[in-house]
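User: Teach me something about this protein's shape.
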Amino acid sequence: MAEWIYFIHPPRHDFAATMTDEEVRVWAEHFERLKRLLAEGTLVLAGPTLGPINTGVAIIEAPDETTARRIMDEDPTIASGLAAGELREFRVSLIRGRD
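Assistant: First, the predicted structure itself:
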């Protein structure tokens, strides 16, 4: 299974500190979906960068780019238009507990 990384680019700098109620709701849906992907074995890891630029990062496993892109595009933050997604093929070369 191939690994993919997708970045979630929010609509403005310092996003985490300035979220509207609607953005909070969508990001809560996003978090619940990530928990489901983790339980299903699709998600490897996820989290935001901290500081003034809050880019989200998700590493997933998918058999091909079409599937990986679908997973990214169905993320509520991206599907809603509140954030832009960026997909790249990725390789987990070293990971604690495995290597």
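Now, about its shape. The chain is about 35% helix and 30% strand. Helices lie at 21-40, 65-73, 76-79. If you'd like, I can walk through any region in more detail.
User: That's plenty for now, thanks!
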